[in-house]
Automatic annotation (TrEMBL):
Family the entry assigns: Belongs to the fatty acyl-CoA reductase family.
Protein name: Fatty acyl-CoA reductase
EC number of this enzyme: 1.2.1.84
Principal EC category: oxidoreductase
Originating gene: LOC103524321
Entry annotated with the keyword Oxidoreductase: yes
Any one GO CC term of the record: peroxisome
Function: Catalyzes the reduction of fatty acyl-CoA to fatty alcohols.
Annotated GO MF terms: alcohol-forming long-chain fatty acyl-CoA reductase activity; alcohol-forming very long-chain fatty acyl-CoA reductase activity
Organism: Diaphorina citri
The entry's keywords: Lipid biosynthesis, Lipid metabolism, NADP, Oxidoreductase
């Protein structure tokens, strides 16, 4: 009952978060009067690029929770159009822009004797320094394997899938089924099950992100560029919000390392042991894939005469080619 009421209230918006942001903007537009007001609209906010330190992050919101789970090895598929732009922006760039926007708004208010409109600053990277979801995912996995988390449950790997049916099947096989198996094992060994609960949370997080990972928008940032151009060189250095300066591979490497450091509270001294475990998990991952292929093939051989005939034909062809090799030499 409550959820249906919420859905009718927010309309076609993906969640209450975006709805309340729109409400706040509408209130400012209608009720601010002559107050010195500006609006800063960030896109998807993730870890810092520079301040307080590179990679700083303190919550699981947005892609961070997904990356954290993927780093642990139990998040492996997501509905995502990998060639669309992932409009991500570092948190310290947003803060610096807010500070400068407040200054600019105050100056304009003073110079215009209180008569001014509301300037909107779209804080985004999609126009001047775009990165696709595919690049973001690939850079993230590269960094996870270079600086792995401790106590991973499986080798970090995964894929974006644009087909909802294919993704739903993979969610069941790669997320749901292993979670229930692990929880059953926990119950049998007298431990508290937790994987299904974690997967439920991850599913909710993934669904929230799907709205943004399957669509693409073009946010104009002319006001941001104009504001940056009006600053002195020193102010641009101190309050930097120029998104063209973001080096994505380096930034995402720090982002993943920041998740390790600030979310999981893991020390750099644990990296050698974590890399050893990652190497073991890599071989377990490869062997499990090989066993799965052999199992599927075995089932096909037992149940399908076409598969058996194809296999015998293939073996016969290989043997014929092998006998021909001496004559070809």
């Amino acid at each position: 009952m409550f959820l249906s009421y919420v859905n009718s209230l927010i309309g076609n918006r993906p969640n209450t978060y975006t709805f309340t942001k729109a409400l706040a903007e509408d209130m400012l537009q209608n009720e601010s009067g002559n107050l010195p007001v500006a609006i800063v609209r960030p896109s998807i906010v993730i870890s810092s690029v520079n301040e307080p330190v590179a990679g700083w992050v303190d919550n699981y919101n947005g892609p961070t929770g997904i990356i954290a789970a993927a780093g642990k090895g139990f998040f492996r598929t997501m509905l995502c159009h990998e060639n669309k732009v992932a409009d991500l922006v570092p948190v310290d760039i947003v803060i610096n822009l807010m500070i400068c926007a407040a200054w600019k708004t105050a100056v304009k208010y003073k110079n215009s004797n209180g008569a001014q409109g509301i300037t909107v600053y779209n804080c985004c990277t999609g126009q001047r320094n775009p990165i696709s979801w595919k690049q973001f995912v690939n850079y993230s996995f590269e960094s996870m394997r270079q600086n792995p988390l401790s106590h991973i449950t499986w080798y970090p790997d995964g894929q974006c899938r644009s087909n909802p049916i294919s993704n739903a099947m993979c969610v069941f096989l790669l997320h749901r089924l292993p979670a229930h198996v692990l929880d059953l094992f926990s119950l049998l060994t007298g431990k508290k099950p937790f994987m299904v609960r974690i997967q439920n949370k991850l599913d909710k997080a993934a669904k929230c992100l799907e709205y943004f990972s399957t669509q693409e928008w073009r946010f104009l940032d002319d006001n941001v560029r104009e504001l940056n151009a009006s600053l002195s060189l020193e102010d641009r250095r101190v309050f930097s919000f120029d998104v063209t300066e973001i080096d994505w591979p380096k930034y995402i490497a720090n982002y993943v390392l920041g998740i390790r450091t600030f979310i999981f509270k893991e020390q750099a001294s644990s990296l050698p042991q974590a890399r050893k475990r990652l190497y073991k998990m890599l071989w377990i991952h490869r062997l499990s894939k090989l066993l799965m292929i052999l199992l599927v093939w075995r089932l096909l051989m037992l149940r399908s005469s076409v598969a058996r005939s194809s296999w015998h034909l293939f073996i016969d062809l290989v043997l014929r080619l092998h006998r021909l090799i001496p004559f070809m030499q």
